[in-house]
Write a structure and sequence with these properties.
CATH topology of the largest domain: D-Maltodextrin-Binding Protein, domain 2
Number of domains: 2
Shape: globular
CATH superfamily of the largest domain: Periplasmic binding protein-like II
CATH architecture of the largest domain: 3-Layer(aba) Sandwich
Largest sheet: 10 strands, mixed
Order of helices and strands: HEHEHEHEEHEHEHEHEEHHHH
Number of helices: 12
Structural class: alpha/beta
CATH class of the largest domain: Alpha Beta
Length: about 325
């Protein structure tokens, strides 16, 4: 009887120990939510590459990628719906300062790293007779959904030309892929997006239809900079897209990564450390990241860095 009790006690202790280990394992597991972008854009595959890098560098951490957009990501991180997100500098600065379209100042969004330049592109069907933004009046436009930085830029560009959505037929598309399909079918004559060059979505469209990119002159860019000082004049070089024979001037901004200010500093430091150590994996997804250095990542955009990022950049001697 005594031996039986001892055996039962041993089994019970072993079971409790196993349960305790399982509980500890569950407790040590962590999920970081990463908001990316619309389907057809570069943020989705880039998010997948970061997921692989960070899960390897941070034992016990799972990175869950989620669709998003420039403005929606800033709000998502600020509201605790995600811990990490891609952002566009002009939108993140607006959020930090509490400017439209943000309802209030963001308080839980810290800067992590600047990654690469983005180009706002106005793509039109070559046979549509659209030579200027002014010619978009009365035409059908495929734009991104509300919450996408490029959608806000679209409004700004129309505004400096004396136009608004009321002057066009606007189709708010959930993805670049859907917008391209609309253009291929001729149900839209213009398409706006903000991404790298050459854009895979625009190349896809150019494989089926002849296209042109609209230029913005110096005066209009100056007016855009009055609306948001973060705009910068950039050039899409001739030959970027099929049958593009001239340079196209437009406005640009930078893509960067944001994180919740509540993340542990050491975790954030390791995230940056692993990114720099695996830049080749990111370049394989987006060539615009080629040559990225800690100094470029530490660019001051007007949004405070996370304490973990500050520690990393100081150790690198670039801050």
């Amino acid at each position: 009887m005594v031996r039986g009790e001892r055996t039962m006690r041993k089994i019970l202790v072993t079971a409790l120990a196993a349960a305790g280990m399982a509980t500890a394992s569950v407790a040590s597991a962590e999920t970081l939510r990463l908001m990316t972008g619309p389907q057809g854009g570069v943020w989705v595959p880039l998010g997948g590459a970061l997921k692989a890098i960070w899960e390897k560098a941070l034992p016990g951490v799972t990175v869950q990628t989620m669709p998003g957009a420039g403005i929606a990501n800033v709000r998502g991180v600020d509201e605790g719906k995600a811990e990490i997100g891609f952002g566009n500098t002009i939108s993140t600065v607006d959020g930090y300062n509490g400017l439209a379209p943000f309802p209030k100042k963001t308080e839980n969004v810290c800067n992590l790293a600047t990654l690469y330049p983005q180009y706002f592109q106005i793509v039109v069907l070559a046979d549509a007779g659209i030579r200027s933004v002014a010619d978009l009046k009365g035409r059908s436009l495929a734009a991104q959904t509300r919450g996408n930085t490029a959608e806000v830029v679209t409004q700004h560009v129309l505004q400096v030309y004396g136009l608004s959505y009321n002057d066009l037929k606007v189709n708010f598309m959930a993805s670049y892929t859907d917008a391209v399909s609309l253009m291929k079918d001729g149900h839209a004559q213009a398409f706006t997006l903000g991404t790298t060059i050459p854009s895979g979505a625009v190349m896809d469209l150019a494989s089926a239809r002849d296209i042109e990119l609209l230029s913005l002159d110096d005066q209009k860019i100056a007016e855009l900079r009055k609306l948001n000082p973060g705009y910068a004049a950039v050039t899409v070089p001739a030959g970027t897209y099929p049958k593009q024979t001239k340079d196209v001037q437009t406005v640009g901004y930078a893509t960067h990564l944001i994180v919740s200010c509540k993340l542990p500093p050491e975790q954030v430091r390791k995230m940056l450390e692993s990114m720099v150590a695996n830049l080749g994996d990111l370049v394989a997804v987006n060539k615009a990241i080629q040559g990225l250095t800690p100094k470029a990542m530490a660019q001051d955009i007007g949004v405070p860095f996370h304490p973990g990022a500050i520690a990393f950049y100081k150790a690198q001697g670039v801050l």
